[in-house]
Write a structure and sequence with these properties.
Elements lengths: L1 E4 L5 H18 L7 H13 L3 E4 L2 H8 L3 H9 L18 H13 L9 H13 L3 H34 L7 E2 L1 H7 L4 H9 L6 E2 L5 E4 H15 L4 H17 L8 H23 L1
Protein name: HTH merR-type domain-containing protein
InterPro entries: DNA-bd_dom_put_sf, MerR-type_HTH_dom, MerR_fam
Pfam family, one: MerR_1
């Protein structure tokens, strides 16, 4: 590696990379609301930026990024990193900026994405970084973090909801309109109608033929929302609710019924359903 004087102010870039690290860490930890680890990593990113600019060839930056050299070239083609200058002989010359962009790209895509639009949102942030539009990237990262926290809260509510449904806990007698429920769950009214048409839930209507939602209906819709966001098919969700109803008739769930038990049961039901589909296809 060749070292040259680092004479460009990188505060804005450093801040972006540090902030981006926050939402990546949030996504990769179960407790997304606790940002202790995120802030520690934020300070690590800032302190790791050298006052010396490094210039590397493809093999060197690939080794530092722990990827194949072809991946580096591919990231340039996909505009995940800034355009790479060439020497007179045609060899690429990478800077520390490219290395940081590679690091962010690897962080952004190292986990499997199961929620709706997460990969698209992460790709947008990385490409904005590659175009050196750092303020836009920072805004996108902040938006992504807010989205992740919201989805995490919905997931926690869904867990508690399923536990209440299984244990037949009492609920209030309050009712809600179709529009208010859609707003409450951050869904479109058409999405709710589509779920109803596909028999994921049934709803009562008043004398004016308007839908009337109860707390029990909202609980079920909350679970459907989380499962659909995780790309469960409508058929598999319907099957899961059938399994839940059968389980309620056969078993009484203890007071210490945990989230781990719930998720194990939920996803084992889905696994058995998928296996049955494979068997029928075979």
């Amino acid at each position: 590696m060749y070292q040259l004087e680092y004479d460009i102010e990188r505060l804005e870039i450093e801040t972006f990379f540090g902030y981006l690290a926050i939402f990546i860490i949030c996504f990769n930890h179960v407790d997304m609301i606790n940002l202790n680890y995120s802030w520690a990593f934020f300070h690590y990113i800032l302190s790791s930026v050298s006052k010396v600019a490094f210039f590397m060839n493809t093999s060197e930056i690939a080794k530092l990024s722990k990827v194949h050299p072809n991946t580096v070239r591919l990231y340039e083609e996909w505009q995940f990193i800034s355009p790479v200058p060439r020497k007179p002989n045609g060899y690429r010359v990478y800077s520390e900026l490219h290395l940081k962009q590679m690091e962010i790209s690897r962080l952004a895509f190292r986990q499997e994405f199961i929620q709706n639009n997460l990969r698209k949102k992460a790709t947008e942030i990385v490409r904005l970084s590659g175009r050196e539009q750092f303020k836009d990237s920072l805004r996108a990262a902040e938006s992504y973090l807010t989205y992740l926290q919201t989805e995490y809260e919905f997931a926690l509510k869904a867990i508690e909801t399923v536990k209440n449904l299984l244990q037949n806990k009492s609920i209030t007698g309050e009712t809600y309109s179709h529009k208010s429920v859609a707003s409450m769950l951050q869904l479109t009214e058409e999405t709710l109608r589509n779920w109803e048409r596909n028999h994921l839930y049934t709803i009562k209507r008043n004398t004016q033929n308007r839908r009337i939602y109860t707390d029990r209906d909202i609980q079920k819709l909350l679970v459907i929302r989380v499962l659909r966001s995780a790309h469960f098919s409508i058929t598999s969700i319907a099957h899961l609710f059938q399994e839940m109803e059968q389980s309620k008739k056969k078993h009484r769930y203890p007071a210490n019924f945990t989230n781990a038990h719930l998720f194990f049961g939920f996803f084992s039901c889905n696994r058995r359903f998928n296996e049955s589909i494979k068997d029928s296809d075979g």
